[in-house]
Amino acid sequence: MIFAYLLSFSIVTFVYVYVLNLPGHITQSYDLVYEYYYTNAIYSLLLDIGLVAFYMYVSNQLYTLFMLPKSDNALQLIVLICTTIMISGGCMIYFKMFGNPKLFFTRWFKRVGYRAILYDVYLVSLIYLLFRMIT
User: Fold this and answer.
1) Cα–Cα separations (whole angstroms), residue 56 to 41, 60, 80, 116
2) What parts of the sequence cross the membrane (predicted)?
3) Which of 58, 69, 106, 117 is least surrounded by Cβ atoms within 10 Å, i.e. has the fewest?
4) Can you give the residue range of the structural domain that contains 33?
5) Do 114 and 106 touch, CB atoms closer than 8 A?
């Protein structure tokens, strides 16, 4: 499972970020994307591995809590998308209201706003879908 997750994460991140530069196109903040994925690449990739895994874990816990059918892949994706929106939305509200202006995520959420959530939904969903195909 860990190998499948890391493989899914690596493939989606490479294509999504480094080949297509979709984060830049979605957010229109090419300089912040460059700072996150190029200037601070190792830190950012490790953070993203943990964050995406956290989104998937919380989604799975909610799915189990509400006793939803494990065979319904579409419903699992919907729960994951809703979970991602809630977590990223909460982070956006926090960083926009209370964030230190020197922190990357404060600058990120203040500049790109809801597009950050859209970006997270795409990234997490694609990683999840590839992960499900592999496992």
Assistant:
1) 22, 6, 7, 18
2) 6-24, 36-57, 77-95, 116-134
3) 69
4) 2-134
5) no
Write out residues in the chain with pLDDT < 50, as ranges. none
Pair of tokens at residue 40? 């601070």
Residue 54's nearest CA partner among 9, 112, 11, 100 is: 9
Residue 106 corresponds to which amino acid? Answer: T
Mean pLDDT of the chain: 96
Sign of CA dihedral 90, 93, 96, 100: negative
**CA atoms of 50 and 55, how far apart (whole Å):** 9
H-helix segments, 38-72: 41-65
Contacts of 29 (CB under 8 A, 6+ apart): 108, 111, 112
Please report the pLDDT score of residue 76 as a whole number. Answer: 95
CA 112 – CA 116 distance, rounded (Å): 6
pTM here is: 0.93
The SS3 of residue 113 is coil
**How many distinct structural domains can be found in the chain?**
1
CA atoms within 13 A on the CB side of 44: 14
